[in-house]
Amino acid sequence: MNPKCKQCVCDYQNKRNQLPEVYIYNKNKSQKRRAILKELPHSLTPHEWKDIKLCINNRCFLTGKVLTESKLSIEHVIPLATGHGGHIKENVLPLDISLNMARKDKNIFEWFYTLDATDEMKRRFGEAIDYLAFMNEMSVEEYKEFVYYCDRFRRTIEEVKTNKRPSKEIFKEWKKSG
Questions:
Q1: Beta partners for 96?
Q2: Alpha-carbon torsion 132, 118, 96, 149, what sign?
Q3: Which of 46, 79, 120, 143 suits 36 as a labelling partner, its CA being 20 to 30 A distant?
């Protein structure tokens, strides 16, 4: 590579960005930045993301397909757009990028019910919800209620700045009061 040649530098950077470890780092960095801008928790590390993917053999949690790094997206189960959740290990799963793009910021349960899901997808979805409930120290029913709470009571950046407590804590307080 000729460091003085602009095209050579661009080609080198493009090739480097396709390396799995660089791609994971950049993908995580981009999602972390989104969470920071929304004042949400953002502690997911590239190592944690890699471990999550390894637990399910680099497969989409829903379809079970083995996907390349560029086709496997970081799915925020509670979307960052809700002002809840965040870029944390308790809120992410690997998902086929086309499914992630189709879901956008919809409630994951409502979105899943609109799919023409196979029995295998239903089983995988159930396992993913079990895992997330466990990670969030909740029962499956309580976790489902938490997801619906986050979708129903979306927060603006100003509201997040005003109340920095974790969404789980706010939810549990809301649940006690009502």
A1: 72
A2: negative
A3: 143
pLDDT per position as a tens digit, 18-43: 544 444 455 667 788 888 888 899 99
Query: Residues 168, 136: contact at Cβ < 8 Å?
Result: yes
Residue 139 pLDDT exceeds 90: yes
- Which segment, 35-39, 98-102, 148-152, 163-167, is predicted with the most confidence on average? 148-152
DSSP string of the chain?
--TT-HHHHHHHHHHHHTSHHHHHHHHHHHHHHHHHHTT------HHHHHHHHHHTTTB-TTT--B--GGGEEEEESS-GGGT-S-SSGGGEEEEEHHHHHHHTTS-HHHHHHHS---HHHHHHHHHHHHHHHHHTT--HHHHHHHHHHHHHS---HHHHHH--S-HHHHHHHHHHH-
In angstroms, the CA 8 to CA 3 distance is: 7
Q: What are phi and psi of 104, to 5 degrees?
A: 55, -120
Backbone angles phi, psi at 145, to 5 degrees: -65, -40
Q: What is the CA radius of gyration of the chain?
A: 18
